[in-house]
Q: What sequence folds into this?
């Protein structure tokens, strides 16, 4: 049992892109540019942003249905080329660091469950200076892509957290569906990739419209 147990949630799992990191527009543009590089139809903003949070190859296949499987790797490389070339232009949402520090001081286990691959997550954690802030992380390439619950299930096992005391926070229906599949409550944020009206079927405890709102809710209810 963890000492100084938090009020409601022992373990808080955050999605990364669109939840902590303001990268939705860059990911969307990078998917579109990669499709054009391969001479394939440019997906709409809606189609490209919908797949944010999924593992890379399934995301590309969904966003560009005409992409043949034998070209998944090629498009993945072009996507990474465009994303990494402009990654320096994006940053944490305002207030993210202060929110995480406040939660850390309240003895929550803080974790990341992301559709990024391990290399990509480690890079952005290092650049953002948040590597030491998180007690555990899981990526799609080392477990399974969302909404498969494997990431959350592994994190719960690692820390001995019960599903009802584990909270998943994300900006997409993939995040919230993963929480439902793992038997965990969830919170949505409206400032990322998916329209928050699509969150209703997953019964989130709260939908935050800014990092400040999320911070306040977590301090009051976490």
A:
């Amino acid at each position: 049992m963890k000492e100084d147990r938090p009020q409601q949630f022992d373990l808080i799992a955050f999605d990364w892109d669109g939840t902590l990191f303001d990268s939705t527009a860059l990911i969307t543009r990078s998917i579109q540019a990669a499709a054009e590089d391969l001479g394939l139809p440019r997906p709409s903003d809606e189609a490209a942003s919908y797949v944010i949070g999924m593992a890379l190859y399934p995301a590309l296949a969904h966003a560009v249905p005409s992409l043949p499987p034998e070209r998944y790797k090629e498009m993945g490389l072009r996507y990474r080329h465009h994303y990494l070339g402009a990654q320096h232009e994006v940053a944490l949402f305002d207030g993210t660091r202060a929110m995480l520090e406040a939660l850390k001081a309240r003895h929550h286990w803080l974790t990341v469950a992301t559709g990024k691959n391990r290399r990509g997550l480690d890079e952005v954690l290092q650049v953002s200076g948040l590597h030491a802030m998180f007690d555990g992380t899981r990526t799609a390439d080392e477990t399974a892509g969302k909404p498969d619950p494997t990431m959350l299930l592994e994190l719960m096992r690692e820390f001995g957290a019960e599903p009802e005391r584990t909270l998943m926070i994300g900006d997409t229906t993939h995040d919230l569906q993963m929480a439902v599949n793992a038997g965990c409550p969830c919170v949505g944020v409206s400032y990322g990739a998916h329209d928050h009206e699509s969150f209703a079927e997953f019964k989130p405890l709260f939908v935050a419209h800014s990092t400040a709102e999320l911070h306040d809710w977590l301090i009051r209810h976490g």
The beta strands are 11-14, 109-114, 136-139, 166-170, 186-189, 207-208. The chain has a mean pLDDT of 92.
